[in-house]
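Re: weekly structure request thread

Next one in the queue (247 aa):
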Amino acid sequence: MSPPPRLWTATGLGIVAALTLSSCGGGPPALTEIATEARQSMEDATSFTYTVTDPDGVHGDELELGEFSSHTDQVNYNILLEMPQADVEVRAVDESNAFLRLNLKDESLSEILGNVDTDGQWIEVPEAEQEDLSEYTQDFDSIIETTFSLIEGLSEEELDTIEVEETELDGQAVYKYVVPATADGETVHYTGAETVEFYFLQETSDLVQVDASTGDSTATHGFSDMDAVEVFEAPPEDEISDLEWSF
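Done, posted below.
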C-alpha cells in the first residue's frame, strides 16, 4: 500500500491591534514576533509530537487522524494514521529495526495485499525494505516550514487585518491569531482551509495548536511534547507476528 498523500507544509510589519496594545506596555505581541520565537523553539527541539484530526475532511477524505511522534537527533519515531480504508502504525526503533501493523477496513485491500491484517500484532519490516518507510517520515522535515509559511506568506495588508485575542485553550492562557490561509498558495498540510487560527502559549510563546477551517468544518493540528517524547522501543515479542510480508 502506498503512503497517504502529504498531509502537512515570520516576516512583516505585525498587526495593528497588537502594536497598539504593546505601546501601552501590555497585550499580545506582534504575530511575526511571537511566530519567530515559536519557530526557533520548535527547530531547536530534540523531539516533538504533531497530531492532526480531520473528521470533516477539510483537507480531503484520506485522513481522519494522524499522530506523529519523533526524535530529531536520532532515527526513532512512531506514526499512527487512521484512514477510511485502513489504520496504519509504523514504529522505527533505530536505523535497522522497524515495525508495522495494519487494520484493514476495506475488504478490497485484503484481496490486494493478502492476509496482512494480523489482529493487532506487529510485522517486522525487513531491513532491506526500511528505505520505503522514508515516505512516511519526510513530512517531519517540512511540517515546521509549512506551518510558519502561512504567516511568512502574508502581505502587509493581510497582517494589518489579522485579529488577535487573549483566551484559554485546554486550561492554558494563549494568544489566538486568526490568519487567512493564503500564504501564496503554499498551504500543503492545510489544503482546503480558508482560515487558520494560531494558538501560542502566553507564558512561553510556544505554538500549541493550529485550527484550519472552511465553512463550519475544522481540522485541528496540535503540537506538543517538545523535548519530552520518550524513546520508542521494539514491541514485546508476543506482540510481533511471524508473518513474512513485503511491501
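The helical segments are 16-22, 31-44, 107-113, 134-152, 156-161. The first strand starts at residue 47 and ends at 53.
Next request, please.
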